[in-house]
UniProtKB/TrEMBL annotation:
Pfam families: Methyltransf_3. This is O-methyltransferase. Keywords: Methyltransferase, S-adenosyl-L-methionine, Transferase. CDD domains: AdoMet_MTases. It comes from the Bacteria. PANTHER family: CAFFEOYL-COA O-METHYLTRANSFERASE 3-RELATED, O-METHYLTRANSFERASE-RELATED.
Amino acid sequence: MVWSDVDDYLIDKLITIDNELEDILRTNEEADLPAIDVSPTQGKLLYLITKLRSPKNILEIGTLGGYSSLWFAKALHKGAKIYTLEANSEYANVARKNIEQTPFTDQIEIIEGKALETLPILAKRDVQFDLIFIDADKENNPAYLNWALKLANKGAVIIADNIVRNGEIIEEHSTDTRIQGVRSFFDMLENHPRIESTAIQTVGQKGYDGFVLAIVK
Ligand SMILES: C[S@@+](CC[C@H](N)C(=O)[O-])C[C@H]1O[C@@H](n2cnc3c(N)ncnc32)[C@H](O)[C@@H]1O
């Protein structure tokens, strides 16, 4: 597929995939984790957005093996932190081991459990976020957006991945609960008084998909 070949070219030209990032993808594969992490070009975009925003705290919903967490971490300033939520204990263990091999153990906190159960606990710790990455079970995107708004500082960036899903997003009567979750998420974004947003369609190694980029007013 030409999209994938072009991605290879862009990665070759613009992206240094260092040993730490490569190691995570390798150990994820060895541990049989699904290859649903962000692509290198998307990871670099998360890194660049982090550099632009200089967040004190990042919230990530959906850790998998910690690949996107590491992209964020590489752009963080000293003292800044990522809280990343993962429901699957096997994946969380792999992520923990992966992150232990990096210099970012103090900056990446992996919180195990279903996000809708761990978010209220996190909220009690009184942490506010400048960047929130929603990348877990799409059915719960509307609930995650409500949590994001509760926990976001003014001017916070919200990014939500996998919002095009091969174009299925326009299927109003889809029986796929993930599609319905993302459609409800878009319904919330439409004319939301506290959010300015756009969505970008993407093609590449991970097929045809897209992401939402939003700012909390
Ligand atoms: C697309 S993957 C995340 C990929 C990761 N952000 C990356 O790019 O490296 C989605 C992850 O969300 C996790 N997940 C699914 N439902 C969840 C829930 N209710 N709470 C927390 N995590 C969940 C899955 O186990 C999976 O690891």
